[in-house]
Each structure stands twice: as C-alpha cells, then as structure tokens.
C-alpha cells in the first residue's frame, strides 16, 4: 500500500469513528457570575452488553466558563450553584432530545440516558419542568429516557431520594444513581428506589481487570440491578464489563486511536457501518 493510500484509509477510518462518537450537543448559557457558560459534548453510543448491540445513547459533555480575556476554562459541574445547574440541566435535556435519533420503523425504542443533577431534581419546581421535557421528548422521538442522577452528596436523606425516584419513575424508563464505588457511597444509595447505578470507567482504576470489575458491579447492583459503565475506551474494558454482568457500557470513541476502531468493531452493531481497518 502506498503512503497516499494509507493516508486515505486512515482518513476514512477516522471519519467513520467520528460518526460513531455520536451527534454533537452544545449549549451556551448566561452564568450567575455574569460570565458565559459553555456545555459541549456528544451523545455517546451505549451498548447492551448482554446482546453486544447498540441500545441507545448517553449525553456526555464538559462545561467551561468564558474568562474576561475570552479564554474558556474548564468548570467542575459539581461546583456550579443551583441556578446554573438548573439552566444546564434544562438546556442539555432539550439538546439531547433535539439531536437523538428517532425510533426507526419496526425497531424497538432506543434508550436515551440523561445525566441530571440532584440539585435540580430535589427541587419540585425544576423536577416538574424536567418531567415535562422528558415526556414531550419521548413522545416525539419514541425513545425511552433513562434518568441518571448525578451529584448526590453523602448524607443526603434517603427519604428525599425515595420521594424523587418515586416521582421520576412514571416518566423515565429507569432512574440510575451516579455512584462512588465505595462501601459508604453504595450503602447510602441502597433501598432508595433506584433501578440501577452508573460509574465512570476511569474512576475504577482497574477497569480492564475482570475480577476487580466483577467486585465493583456486584457492589453497585445493591443500589439497583442495572449498571452502566461510562466511557469504556478499550476492548479489554468492554470485555471486563460484560463478564462482570454490567447491563450497559458507553463507548468513548476517539478518532485517530486504533483501539477505538477495535472497540467499535467488536461491538458489531455499535454503529451503522463498520469502520475501515487500518
């Protein structure tokens, strides 16, 4: 193969992987500080691990703040105040539904996982807004939305969590808790009405170790039976999550990375087309 042919093949593969990353989502908001906030990300593909097939998408994004000199600096979402968190949650649920694919004729409804802050969901007024947007989006797209509650602080009363999950479940297909894989974190979220839990692969430390992954998934299943492992970046990580009994994995597809091509290929239906081999 000539150098030009190799370059062309790589560009084709990267273009295919870029499409696999999912639709882009973005929003610009006025921050409470007076500076603009930017949320930018993708609807990542989610794999049903028991089937090895694409099952839907999850909204994944980062937030940055505009500085006086025009630069954008990253923001830790958990540090935002409740007003900014509400604006962010409402904006991104709208963008996610606007960018998600509708259910194809003859297919089962895809899942759309939506991360939403506990700060917003514990507020009954904001919760009603979120429920309305979720109901309208599901009717329009014929998708099934799954709520992922993020930012649950240690010591949050379980009665408050049970109240929120009870009101969310009639509209959402499931209500998952973003959990720290620690004994205390899992204990505080157990018996609160969650249908499952989520965890970042990068937070596990041993995301490619099948024994370690099994221990973590079994612990998370005490919160609820469904477990979503976020941002799996390797074939070994995907294999470990599947072997451990996790329900779903979201794929962190990075164009230009050979491992991403292998990851997408192994899941078979993680995409509408198979990426060209390098």
Please explain how this structure is put together.
With 278 residues, the chain is α/β, with parallel strands linked by helices. Helices cover 38% and strands 26% of the residues. It has an 8-stranded mixed β-barrel. A hairpin with a 5-residue loop joins β3 (53-66) and β4. The longest helix has 19 residues, at 3-21.
Structural class: alpha/beta
Low-confidence stretches: 269-278
Large-scale geometry: globular
Strand neighbour order, sheet with most strands: 2-3-5-6-7-8-9-10
How much of the sequence lies in strands comes to: 25-35%
Count of DSSP E strands?
A: 10
Q: Between the first and last Cα atoms, what is the distance in angstroms?
A: 11 Å
Sheet with the most strands?
A: 8 strands, mixed, barrel
The helix count comes to 9
**Could you tell me the mean pLDDT?**
86
